[in-house]
Each structure stands twice: as C-alpha cells, then as structure tokens.
Amino acid sequence: MEIIYKAWAWYIVGPSIALVMLAMIYLGKSFGMSTNLKTLCAIGGAGKINDFFDFDWRKNIWNLLFAFGAILGGFVATNYLSTPDYQMDLSSDIVSKLESYGLSAIGASLVPSDLFNWESLFTLRGFVLLVIGGFLVGFGTRYANGCTSGHAISGLSNLQLPSLVAVVGFFIGGLVMTHFILPFLLAL
Length: 188
Fold this sequence. Notes:
By secondary structure, the protein is mostly helical. The protein has two domains: 1-86, no CATH class; 117-188, no CATH class. The chain has helices spanning 10-27, 34-43, 61-80, 92-100, 118-121, 124-143, 148-157, 161-186. α2 (34-43) crosses α3 and α7 (148-157) packs antiparallel against α8. It is globular and about 50 Å long.
C-alpha cells in the first residue's frame, strides 16, 4: 500500500493551533521551542554556573515532551508518510533564480542539499550560512527572549507587546535576508 503525502489544509491546521493555544492559556502555560534548550541546560546543572539557568526545570518537563513529539512526528512524516519522489510545487521564477545561483534539485527537499551537507560546511558560503547563521539565530533568540514559535504563536496569543515587536523584527530580518543578504551569499 502506497501512502501519498498531502499537506493538511489551513482551515484544519490553523484552528488546531488556536485550540492548543487556548488550552495553554487556560492552563497558564507558555510555549516556545527555545525554552527547551534552557531547560536541558538546567537539567545538566548549568544553574550552578549561571543564575539564568537556576530555576525549577521540572515545571517545564511538559515542553520537553512536546519537543520530543515534534521531532518524532517529523521523523514519522518523513520516513513513513511521504513519497520519495515528492516534489514541492514552486514557482518557475523561484526555481530559475535558485538555479542561477548554482543550486540543483530545487524542491526535492525542504532545504537545498547543495547547501546543507557536510561538504558545504567547509566552504566559505557553507560556513557563513551554517555556522555564522546558526550563531546569529541563537544570539537573536536569546536577545529577543524567545524564538519565532514562542513569540509568534504563544506571545501573540497572550497579546504581549514585546512579542509583537519581536515578530515584526523577525519579518523585517527575514525580508532583508531574503532580498539582500542571501543572494549575495549564494553568489559566493
């Protein structure tokens, strides 16, 4: 029996996220994936070194289970609910633009395998994208006091002004990266 991958419709996913957020608000919980790293550091004893990690991590154990479920769900979806020849439906203009930067197999996976592999890590372009980009994401997450999922989903659901400011900043940063920085880096 062949299982064919089909994305869930927005009118199913959107209200589902809203219901989860309403339940979390009712239970007095907030959500964010970056909180899990903080919790893992606290479990490992980082609170003895830095006060930032000195908190009762047992109250956040549910969030670790949520992250584990997200990882497990991604594994199941990738390995058992998708077809190997799945091709994302992308605009021909986008495909042409990415091919002009030397990328191939556009749409065959969520990330270009030409950029996200071990060999690419040892090139200038790969190092900047993977290592420096990863550092900037981590720094930005800490500086903004949360990640995109925490601010955009949980923070906005709780009507928090700092989350609105963070989300606006995320979008501006994403637009600048997409239209100015990424084309420069892909041309390296």
